[in-house]
Amino acid sequence: MNMAPEEMIAGPAGPERIQALRAELAARGLTGFIIPRADEHQGEYVPASAQRLAWLTGFTGSAGMAVVLADRAAIFVDGRYTLQVEHEVDKASFEIRHMVDQPMTRWLDEALNRGDRLGFDPWLHTADQAEALRLVCERTGAELVGCDTNPLDAVWRDRPPPPCRPVVAQPLAFAGRNSAEKRLALSDSLRAERLDGAVLSDPASVAWLLNIRGDDVAYVPLPLSFALVQADGTVDLFMEPAKTDDALVAHLGDGMRLMRPADFLPCLGRTRGRIRVDKSTVPAAVVQALRDSGASVDMGLDPCALAKACKNPVELAGSRAAHLRDGVAMVRFLAWLDGQDEMDEVQAAERLYAFRARGDRFRGLSFPTIAGAGPNGAIVHYRSSPATNRRLLPGQLFLLDSGAQYQDGTTDVTRTIAVGTPSAEQRTRFTLVLKGHIAIATAIFPEGTTGSQLDVLARQALWRHGLDYDHGTGHGVGSYLSVHEGPQRISKVGTGAVPLRAGMIVSNEPGYYKTGAYGIRIEALVAVEERPVPTGGERPLLGFETLTLVPIDRRLMDVALLDTTEQAWIDTYHARVYDDIAPLVEDDVRAWLQWATAPIC
């Protein structure tokens, strides 16, 4: 798959670029402009052509936003990037703000004056975001102006062209259901909700519905595109024709109209009836176009989201096969790592990539590998660079969070590895995290249970010791699609309020992080499955099947803190890992695996 887009941004950011933007804004009669880290689809990863924030400011993190006014400018980032932004952004040009503690709306309340004209690109903001900006302008007496074309693009002289890589069919052998069946089911669901159609603004939904994959962004096999689905199941697909060939057109079949992206807005202008849009991803420009046409806009959940989340038997079988190959790569890597005396984060990540690349159907990483040694492991979304790269030193913990895209499945696994002899504190806290991991893995719960209701299970052992972690316990995962897929989650906040259903894949990843010292996370992917109802039971039950097949470091376990049921789970899991992986690896790796999966007591 293609490289990360921030790695393809050429040239230094600096005062010259912000001056050029200000001149363009003045020529358009604008006082200021907002630059989000976003593309038209609100995706986690965006192409090089949409890396406007990085080009203007130098900031390459995955979340942020800047505001440029005539005499002031600011960049807003979250807690993951407070150190990174200080190194990458010219503080003489931009005020640096925390987007939670010092939100952009508050800054605008202070910075805007009556009569100011604040510009924004309605393709890069959702309708909710645009409404929040409108309210700020209303309070300050300013005017919010939706720009027909992006003024930053007018001064970005060496802007890369939008991606136009070939789109390919995802074979039925991996998809499990053909596109015609999916479109028929979608038609039924739209009619059941008395909807006349839906706009699909998330390329992952387009890819799933039409059984296609692309290579337009890093880490996720997406063809950037929009689709308009009618209640009769017909689909208008808005995508550059250069991405297609005769084979793909034949694959798309009847009931499909392939149209150019330039046709999208005119088509929306002819759309009538009640149309569903996903409020979390749809651009404000799409909502406005539908309302201007006289359509009734229904803000809700992407109509493909739940169907995509509930994997069919073929997709589940593919995920199991992908995790088996991924387990082989991880075991080879861990066996190799245990024999190294000199190693650093970057070398470890590169070596793991090489082991994965040997596997069948490997298509690339599913996200940038997080390889954090010692204190770097305490940074939840850490990404090693030449400036931060650390050696793996005795007495440290090494947190390795990584995943891959295979044509039949997407993987994501975290293991915390002892380098040398761990301390008593490290072993205690690792074991508390492990108890939470086991609690999720062994949970049995009635249908209708949400991820937010399960989240406490992962935290209870830590809570008893006055400890916790600040991220969610689990996120949904796609089938050779995004490693972060909704709507399901395991989280203590409201985003985990979607009931779990059979076939969903979620991560199980409790953790603990001691700032400046070490980080611990134990992550496996699990599939929701039906469980038998005991005699006298009155509710259908669900549980989890663990898909990941990678040993958990026994050196970090304090067995005295584990009850007999937890000990039995570890030994049973490790026996399964050995039985499945051992026949597929070399003799020396098999010998290491036998040691790594030996009974803990």
From TrEMBL:
InterPro entries, sorted: Creatin/AminoP/Spt16_N, Creatinase/aminopeptidase-like, Creatinase_N, Pept_M24, Pept_M24B, Peptidase_M24_C, X-Pro_aminopeptidase_P
GO molecular function terms attached to this record: metal ion binding; metalloaminopeptidase activity
Pfam families: Creatinase_N, Creatinase_N_2, Peptidase_M24, Peptidase_M24_C
Record-annotated Peptidase M24 domain positions: 320-530
UniProt domain Creatinase N-terminal: residue ranges: 17-148
GO cellular component: cytoplasm
CDD domains: APP (cd01085)
Enzyme category, top tier: hydrolase
EC numbers, comma separated: 3.4.11.9
Keywords tagged on the record: Aminopeptidase, Hydrolase, Manganese, Metal-binding, Protease
Family named by the database record: Belongs to the peptidase M24B family.
Protein name as catalogued: Xaa-Pro aminopeptidase
Organism: Magnetospirillum gryphiswaldense (strain DSM 6361 / JCM 21280 / NBRC 15271 / MSR-1)
